[in-house]
Write a structure and sequence with these properties.
Arc Repressor Mutant, subunit A; 132 residues; mainly alpha
Length: 132
Amino acid sequence: MDKELVLTKEEQKALRLEVSRLLDFCHEQKCPYRSGFCASTRVCPSCPVGKAIQALGKKLWMATSSPSKGKPWTEEDEAFLIQHFLQLSVEEIAKKRGHSLYRVLYRVRVLQAKGVLGKKRNAGKKKGEKAV
């Protein structure tokens, strides 16, 4: 499906209504693909109705999601983060590298999960703030 898909608000509303109609149909017809009682709105990928719901949902998502607005993360950015993580605050790293605070925090978490970065122990933190 093309990422450039553009839908009007009316088309988006029509898609949402169709998904709702299909969900109602699935619940009313006691879909044989569902196992037992389920109060969630999850759909079964084996069910023809579920496939239709997923296709409509994907079309709607593709039309309404926006690409990442931040600049791409480079190897140089990552090396800078690793080298300066203990000396600089996350805010300073974000400013120096031109990334948002949240992108830097996310990258820190990824690198910590990989074991590349350790945790800061109150380095540069004010009283009451958590260490990253």
